[in-house]
Amino acid sequence: VMRLTKPTLFTNIPVTCEERDLPGNLFNQLMKDDPSTVKGAETLMLGEMLTLPQNFGNIFLGETFSSYISVHNDSNQVVKDILVKADLQTSSQRLNLSASSAAVAELKPDCCIDDVIHHEVKEIGTHILVCAVSYTTQTGEKMYFRKFFKFQVLKPLDVKTKFYNAETDEVFLEAQIQNITTSPMFMEKVSLEPSMMYNVAELNTVDTAGESESTFGARTYLQPMDTRQYLYCLKPKQEFAEKAGVIKGVTVIGKLDIVWKTNLGERGRLQTSQLQRMAPGYGDVRLSLETIPDTVNLEEPFDITCKITNCSERTMDLVLEMCNTNSIHWCGVSGRQLGKLHPSSSLHLALTLLSSVQGLQSVSGLRLTDTFLKRTYEYDDIAQVCVVSSEIKQ
């Protein structure tokens, strides 16, 4: 059994000396005549030739394990009904990797049966390749033997995630990916496959002259022990917008799909399990701002649009009260009836207010009262708005 891996570049140890030393120019000439060295750069350790792997090497989760299996008849007799079976034993399952389960009719002396197996490694830890051979001798005796080949599957990447909940229903995901192998990686693709409730926008590219370029540069190599941050924005789909705003407990976001290449093009792929975040609690009634201007004039009315959502499991009869603060003054009738609001439903409310103080002011002073339970919900510091003098704005 021999593992099939990509070859590596040949390395040599250059031996040089000064011309006034005893060997003179002999060592330099030998390096120039060596076919494995790079012409014009003979003192570099890395050559131009490829060399076959001299050992098993490391195999990482997500890579494809390939092996060459050869059964050779060392005797001087013809054997019959040869059956070669290759199984891979992991900590949780046993997989059959044999390309064919049919028996070979006969195998003559000095002949062999060859097979190449492939398997995408999906578990870390100890793996045992079990090769079993059964055959029948000329006397009709059935023979059987097995060989075991043990190897370890290592973890190539360390993935950490952070969630940021925006004031709206948007969710920002930061994925920190660290290369914990001993060789550099070419990050071919890092994408987020969202759950059915979300649309995702990738925030890892910038538009330059009408073309999208990666924020990590044209060659996205990740050196050993280096970490890179990827950012994604998830927004609920229109049909799930209401449900996404009131969902309780754990919310499924999606899963990361990572594809990389190492050395001479060995490909690896990892897909994380479903990423989950704790949804923010909104209480019985949620109030959010749909529209608000960034900058307004001093002592001039401006409009905002609020969205009120019933997050409870009962119907509410709401009354809106508007309380003025030292800087924010509401325009309109306070104490008006908003009507009944059923569970998981929402309504939009247009309000007008003005500010009597310049600077960054906080919109506060809204009160919602449920007449059924006589319960009042207070909403302060809903948003901030920059108040400037009308002369400055002009």
Q: What would you note in describing this structure?
A:
5% of the residues lie in helices and 55% in strands. A hairpin with a 3-residue loop joins strand 20 and strand 21 (266-271). It contains 3 helices and 33 strands. With 394 residues, it is mainly beta. The mean pLDDT is 86. Strands 4, 6, 7, 8, 10 and 11 form a 6-stranded mixed β-sheet that branches. The chain folds into 4 domains: 1-55, no CATH class; 59-155, Immunoglobulins (Immunoglobulin-like), CATH 2.60.40; 157-279, Immunoglobulin-like; 285-388, Immunoglobulins (Immunoglobulin-like, Sandwich), CATH 2.60.40.10. Residues 157-280 form the Trafficking protein particle complex subunit 13 middle domain.
Number of strands: 33
CATH top level label of the largest domain: Mainly Beta
What is the count of distinct domains? 4
CATH topology of the largest domain: Immunoglobulin-like
How much helix, percentage-wise, in residues?
Answer: under 10%
CATH superfamily of the largest domain: Gamma-adaptin ear (GAE) domain
Give me a quick take on this structure.
By secondary structure, the chain is mostly beta strands. Helices cover 5% and strands 55% of the residues.
Could you give the topology of this structure?
Blueprint: E1 2-3, E2 8-11, H1 26-33, E3 46-51, E4 59-60, E5 64-72, E6 79-89, E7 94-96, E8 104-107, E9 112-120, E10 125-136, E11 142-154, E12 157-165, E13 171-179, E14 185-194, E15 198-202, E16 205-208, E17 211-214, E18 221-222, E19 227-236, H2 241-246, E20 250-262, E21 266-271, E22 275-278, E23 285-291, E24 295-297, E25 302-310, E26 316-322, E27 328-331, E28 336-341, E29 346-355, E30 359-363, E31 366-370, E32 375-379, E33 383-388, H3 390-393
Parallel strand pairs: 4-11, 24-33
Antiparallel strand pairs: 1-5, 2-3, 5-9, 6-7, 6-8, 6-10, 10-11, 12-13, 13-19, 14-18, 14-20, 15-19, 16-17, 20-21, 20-22, 23-25, 25-29, 26-28, 26-31, 27-29, 30-33, 31-32
